[in-house]
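ok so i was messing around last nite and threw this chain in just to see what happens. nothing serious, just curious
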Amino acid sequence: MPEKAEENYSTLLIALRALENKMTAYVIGQITVKDPAKWEEYRGKIPSTLSPWGAELVLRGTRAKVLSGQHPHTDTVVIRFPDMESVVEWHNSAAYQALVPLRTKAANLDLISCEADL
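result:
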């Protein structure tokens, strides 16, 4: 194999391995709404903050029944991201951070992220 082709092949393999190691990541929010009008305003603004990161809303729902343990919140949201780096960049983005004061007035929220290994 010519030297340049071998170099390009090696670079491609490194890039493919890096892509393989990225796992889908999720943000899960557990929510207790304090101000329904403010919460609806906040919810309406979130989708535009997600699209630059390739994220999608998977679930918005209300608790039907706690099956085990204790769960004080009434609402849940699940957002899928391509990888954990996208989660962090979204969460730290100016667009999302601009909504945090509204979110704080609207609801009590526990927000976690996790990588999927399936």
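not much to say yet. Strands lie at 25-33, 56-62, 75-81, 107-115.
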